[in-house]
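Hey,
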Amino acid sequence: MAAPKGKWEYLKARYLEHLQVQNYAPRTLESIEGHLRFFLEYLEGETSIEDFSSLTHDDMAAYQTWVYFNGNRKVEGKPLSFITQRKRVSCVQGFFRYLFRQRILAHDPSATLEKPRERRLLPRSVLSEKKTLRLLDAPNVKTPLGLRDRAILELLYATGIRSEELRKLKLGDIDREREQLRILGKRNKERIVPVGRIALNWITEYLGRARPLLLNGRDTGIVFPTKNGRIFTTANLVDLVRKYAKRAGLSEKVTPHALRHTCATHLLRAGADIREIQVLLGHKSLGTTQIYTHVDITDLKRVHRACHPRENA
């Protein structure tokens, strides 16, 4: 099967359409498309391969090696992160697995590739409870925007929901009587999360006093519109959180995701079961939750001093 660039692009589009039907999120599809485009550019620019059916395990291993040494377009000579390397490889593996299952290819040349080992990194920015309160107090709640922003920060910290989940939250997703939210997570997987009394009070005050002033004549049902009545972008929300972190005098790199880390870690420290936190955060794997909910070394030092026999001799 000859596969010039036009054919490659056709197969890529067909694969992405397949994933779309499988309910993959738009951002995930965009990421996969980018990794596949990177692979196809490699085939075109670095090899003379014109036929997918001629690809071998050695060809794919050569691509993986090339990714490691040449895949960082931002800093020449610096290897890609292990996470990005894994994505580069896994997206291509998914593509060839699809082509094999559809009988477009007689074999899967990527089947025996080994992905780079994943490193379990601890979250960098988990705020203490004192610093979290400083962040929450930073907005000027006497203004409509400040009241909106206070409600956003309170909700991120109270629930640990993702940035995208907050941006797309609709009025009908809030059940004030039961004090809970309906969240539509990754791959349109629905879950119910508790809000908490304080966060719900701020949301209620915001909905009554500030939101009507921000709609700008276009009520889309989104809970938190921008000052122009539009939906927040990811960058908008990151900038908002960083602005208040700076105003609160915090040196940490604070993002919406950092508040997700902080929520989970504080719950764990207070005695919450890790499997309950897994449900709250919407993690498919418990291993992912264990990364998000590390115990700070200062806690370990305190427990060690209080409990170790040698420290209490």
